[in-house]
Amino acid sequence: MGTVVLVHQGGKGYEVEFVTLDGETVAIVSLHSIQICPIGRREIVRSQVIN
Known about the structure:
- Strands 1-2-3 form a three-stranded antiparallel sheet, with no helix packed on it.
- The protein has strands at 3-8, 13-19, 25-32.
- By secondary structure, it is mainly β.
- The two termini are 22 Å apart.
C-alpha cells in the first residue's frame, strides 16, 4: 500500500510513496493510472508471511 504524493497530467500518472510501518520511506515510484487502485474505507491491510 502506498500514498499518492503527486498527480501528473490530471490523473494520467502518479508519484506513489511506500513506507515501512515505522514511517521510513522505502521507495517513491512513478506509476500509470492503470497500475494503481484506490482502497476502500473498510479494507484491511494484510501481509504475507513467507517461511
